[in-house]
# Entry
Amino acid sequence: MVEWWYSKKSADDVILVSRIRLLRNFSEYRFPDTMNDDDREEIRERILPLIPDMQDRLGMGIRHLPYERFSPEERLALQERQLINKAAQGAEKRIEVLASQDEAFSLTLNSTDHVRLLYSRYGNRLSELYQKIQPIDRMLGDTVPYAWSERFGYKTSTIANVGTGMRAYFVMHLPFLSGTKNFSQVTEEIGRYGVVVRNAITEAGKRSMGLYVIYNHRSMGLTENNIMDILTNVAGRLAGQEREMQGHADRVRMRDRVLRSYGILRYAQRMDFFESIVHLSNLLLGVSHGILTTSGDFSIYELMLGVQPGNLQVYHKSLFDEETIRIKRADYLRYFISTIDAD
Amino acid sequence: MLCEKCGKRDARVKITRIINGVSETHHYCRECAEEMTGKTEIKSNEWSQAVFKLLREMFMQASHENNKELQEKAAGLTCPVCGRTYQEFAENGVFGCSACYEAFEPVLNDALISMQGTASHQGKGPQKDEKDTDPGDPFHEEAVSPEEELEILEARLQEAVREERNEDAAHYRDEILSRRDKSDG
Ligand SMILES: [Zn+2]
Ligand SMILES: [Zn+2]
# Structure
């Protein structure tokens, strides 16, 4: 379970999540694309003993997941929760996945790059996350020297990530802004600063329901602080616009939009993934405008992660066909939504 | 992906039309896209598409007969540590080891500039923290404006013409034209 969502006190209703990803490789070993099994094992043997140290520096428990024994659904579930990437999900060679108990932190070893460090939290806090991940980054590089040069910076497996090896992300909820006519011009303009704005969830033929990811496209030629400044600045502007539009929205229409979705999620018996995200997006709006009150120990965004097929199947510890997944998704939603009160 | 219009050549240009606030995206080859310029807005640089496409194109350019020097330069490159050749690298865009960077350095420049807008690193390293000399507000000084991008491309075009790198020159000319079309609306 993604426990780091639980803490609601600093939750932001527009900037939902901040995330930092760093890619690193060790200079003594060939990169994962050409390395042999002995190299993999050696890296494993040198890095895994650092776990107690990592726990000390992060101040939280870290588990080495028995990833090689995971079923395809369990791997998919980790990917849906953004703990590992698609490459790691489909990895044929042995990789290692370390994760903190609350899943805020993860380290993938020997996937596309030797090291993939990830740190995520709710709200708007990129530089804080970057500071937190620094000691781990330093510890790994001190143990096995990183492939780095003055000119290229951190040498990653592809030139798409070279330099800082850094990608900074925000997950944003922009239901009003994304519905405006010139939103695509806005995102294009933002692209000039090297920032990509993308639908967080897409399905063929269907368009936005307000959930977006924004991240830096360039990893080279900008310092880590530049990257975070640009992202934070862009996210702040988008969030400001979004809040202003929400503030000016017609109250009756807003309540109607929120409560319709609430009614559907509370009583529906089968539910498509995309449809559930549309309604959950409206619930998020309802919570931030006081139309809905959550009393349970979960966030709406956590439900958005939970209704994905891999997570539903892992939650029930079973394999389902598509129709059963729809039914289980509706069950899952009714269970949680019943603890949410409408004003 | 093949061009939506002719269905023959590789789609290299993404065209986004915005009609009544609804955007539609189409993918065309350079030739077909050029034909339609003026009517639509061209976003010629979808750099987020796989890097290896670009590398492959560069390799093919290098393999072109008119360009023996670059051809020999690129084709002869092999990483002394992992044995990966530049051709292999150009096919999937993946480095075999740390030493590949130095091995392919002579031809990496263009790929880096296209992909990253620069070919040199800023920021921290394993032994040092991020440089104290902050380059300033990235919004105003770091981001390359469309005008600056054009200037850079024009300089590169002139250089290519001077050095009689015809393929490169054609490439830069196309880039410049598509950007001008875009800024003219
Ligand atoms: Zn065509
Ligand atoms: Zn190599």
Observations:
- Chain B touches chain A through 48 residues (CB under 8 Å).
- The two ends of chain B are 27 Å apart (CA to CA).
- The first strand of chain B starts at residue 13 and ends at 19.
